[in-house]
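I wish you would study the pair of lines that follows with an eye to the fold:

===
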Amino acid sequence: MAPRKRWDDEQMKAAITAVRHKEMGYLKAAKIFNIPQTTLERYVEFGKINQNPSRIFNCDETGITSVQHKHTKVLAMKGKKQISTLTSAERGSLITVVTCMSPAGQFIPPMIIFPRKNMKLELMNGTPPGSIYGCHTSGWIQADLFTKWFQHFIDHTKPTKSDPVLLVLDGHYSHTKNLDVINMARENFVSIVCIPPHCSHKMQPLDISFMGPLKTYYAKEIENWLRNNPDRVVTVYQVGELFGRAYLRTATAEIAANGFRKPGLYPCNRNVFRAHDFFSYGKQ
C-alpha cells in the first residue's frame, strides 16, 4: 500500500487563502493543493475561531467541600509548641463546580452540583450571578448534568455558522461518551477538542491558572467564616456564598489569558512543547 501523501504548511496556507478570498471552493482547492477536503474544511473553520479569543473556551470540573484543605501560615512566639488553627468539621460534603473561561477573559457562570436528590434554592444563596445548579447523591458530574451545563454554555455563547465556538475539555466520560452533547454541538456550531489523557496539568487552561487560586481563596473564605462564627461549622448551606466570593476573586482577565497562553492554545503556539514534555506519560 502506497504511503499517504502529506501536505505542508505552505500548501495549507495557500488553500485556506484561496477559500477565504472566494477564489475557489473547498473541492477545487483540495484537489489543486493536494489536501483532503475534510481536513481543509476543518482548518478553515478552526482558523475563524482562533482569530477571535472570545470564541475559544475551556471547561473543567473540580470538587470543593465544607472542609478547608489549605491553611494559612500561623505566626507564634518562638518556642511555643502548641499552635492552633481554625478547622471545620472533619468530614465535609463534596460539591462539584463546573467552570468555563475564554482567553478574552469571559467566564461562563458556573454550575454547582450538590450532593442530594432534591434541590433547595437556599443552597444557591451567594453564588456567582447567573450560576445554575444540579443535584446528584454523589455530588459528582453526571452525563445528564453535563448536558444541562452544555445547553447553558450554548445559551451564553450563542454560536452560529458564521460565528462558531471552540470548546476544549478533558476526556471525562460525561463529555466524550455523551451522544446528547455531541449532537447538540453539531447542531449548534460548537467544535469540541479533547485534551490527551494525562496531559491536563500541562494543557488545560483552567488547571494551569485558575483552579489553584480558586482553591486558595476558597480555603481562606472558610477560615474567615469560622473565625467569625466560632461556635459553628461550615455546612453545605454556606458553601455557595463562600465559593461565590472565592470565584469572583479568581475570575479575572489576567488569569484567563495566562491559562491559554502557557499551553500555546491562544495565541496559538505549536512550539510550546517538545516530545520529552510528555514522554513519561506516554510510557505509563
